[in-house]
Design a protein that fits this description.
- This protein has about 350 residues and is an alpha/beta fold.
- It folds into two domains: about 160 residues, Rossmann fold, CATH 3.40.50.300; about 170 residues, Glutathione S-transferase Yfyf (Class Pi), Chain A, domain 2 (Up-down Bundle).
- It is about 45% helix and about 20% strand.
- The strands form three sheets. It has a six-stranded antiparallel sheet, with helices on one face. It has a five-stranded parallel sheet with strand order 8-12-13-3-14, sandwiched between helices. It has a three-stranded antiparallel sheet with strand order 9-10-11.
- A hairpin with a 2-residue loop joins strand 1 and strand 2.
- Helix 4 crosses helix 5.
- It starts with a strand and ends with a strand.
- The relative contact order is 0.16.
- Belongs to the RecF family.
- It is found in: Cytoplasm.
- It holds the Pfam family SMC_N.
- The RecF protein is involved in DNA metabolism; it is required for DNA replication and normal SOS inducibility. RecF binds preferentially to single-stranded, linear DNA. It also seems to bind ATP.
- GO terms for molecular function: ATP binding; single-stranded DNA binding.
Length: about 350
């Protein structure tokens, strides 16, 4: 499955533009600021109904315009449309029929993005790594996504109660217990899904790292969670006074982390720049494999500005994979057309100049 064409209205720096794509490699070239990354983000938006760059949908609307729309035709004869309004309203359609729930769209058009800021997954805190793996799991498993959304809604409700009780100096334990019990059940389901996922994902990741680094280090992704403790639920219930003091839920899967280890120590503390790049690149290539296995189709692969961010060895590894047919449809950006022509001289390319 691949994206055949895409029409943009008032999306980021595009007033109106129509693009047609190759089912294999599409290389987007142009000067910095011409809209290369924005075009990749439009493909990502179409697949996942959200931007890879902006946290608010309205920020994807062209400056001083009231709306934005994207419409893309896929090879499975589905036409996906996304309409954004400045007031925050978003509509996603499949063959001109509105999805009842946006979450129903996630995973239907699997996509993997390799971006210049991917090493943030190593540098940043636990929330960034949770978002990474929650994003992968949400594409792989629709049931996980529904559970995750319910958990976050229940967490918000429980936190609102805790804040209200702290302000009023009064606690309705019966009311709070309703949200507590629901949170424990949903959290347990998320924990089991994450645990199972990392068990199956880790071998794919380790294999990719060996190919990228020639196996010089032992790497591991370790899942850290309060729920590994056998008496977690008992501890959670005893934690009420702490929660009231903090006015938020201080234990649970929303505090989980995924530890990135190399030879038994944190990559964040001891990994070189090259080792960090190989680590996150191996995660993204393993994500591609995982989605391909689960969805029985090759995900769309988005490669943003990788020639500037990767060294020659890693670039050659990616090009070897492209030429071997390991990937399906690829979108690649580069600000230097002459470099693209040289590196991809033996690869069939659909060149898009901006």
């Amino acid at each position: 499955m691949y994206l055949q064409n895409l029409r943009l209205y008032n999306f980021r720096n595009y007033e109106e533009r129509f693009f047609t794509f190759s089912p294999t490699l599409n290389c987007i070239v142009g000067k910095n600021g011409s809209g290369k990354t924005n075009l990749l983000d439009a493909v990502y938006f179409l697949a996942l109904s959200k931007s890879s760059i902006q946290t608010q949908d309205s920020l994807s609307i062209r400056f001083e315009e009231d709306f934005s729309s994207l419409e893309g035709a896929f090879s499975n004869q589905n036409i996906i449309g996304i309409h954004l309004l400045r007031n925050g309203k978003k509509t996603v359609t499949s063959n001109h029929k509105v999805y009842e729930k946006l979450s129903d769209h996630i995973g239907k058009y699997p996509v993997v993005l390799l971006a210049p800021n991917d090493t943030d997954y190593i540098r940043d805190g636990a929330e960034t790594r949770r978002k990474l793996f929650d994003g992968i799991l949400s594409q792989v498993d629709p049931e996980y996504l529904q559970t995750y959304l319910k958990y976050n809604k229940t967490l918000d409700q429980r936190n609102s109660l805790l804040k209200q009780f702290a302000e009023q100096n009064y606690v309705d334990k019966d009311l709070l217990s309703i949200y507590t019990e629901s949170l424990l059940v949903l959290g347990k389901a998320i924990f089991e899904k994450r645990k199972s996922f990392i068990e199956s994902f880790s071998p794919l990741f380790k294999d990719q790292y060996v190919h990228l680094s020639e196996g010089r280090e032992q790497v591991e992704i370790q899942y850290s969670s309060d729920l590994w403790e056998e008496n977690f639920e008992e501890q959670f219930q005893k934690n009420l006074n702490r929660d009231l003091s903090a006015q938020r839920t201080t234990m649970g899967v929303h505090k989980d982390d995924f530890l990135f280890l190399m030879d038994g120590v944190l990559v964040k503390k001891f990994g070189s720049q090259g080792q960090r790049k190989s680590f996150v690149m191996a995660i993204k290539l393993a994500q591609f494999q995982c989605l391909e296995l689960e969805k029985e189709t090759k995900p769309i692969l988005l490669l943003d500005d990788i020639f500037d961010k990767l060294d020659d060895r890693r670039i050659l590894r990616l090009i070897e994979m492209m030429n071997s047919g390991a990937f399906g449809q690829i979108f690649l950006t580069d600000a230097r057309p002459e470099r693209t022509a040289e590196l991809l001289s033996h690869t069939e390319v659909n060149l898009i100049s901006l």
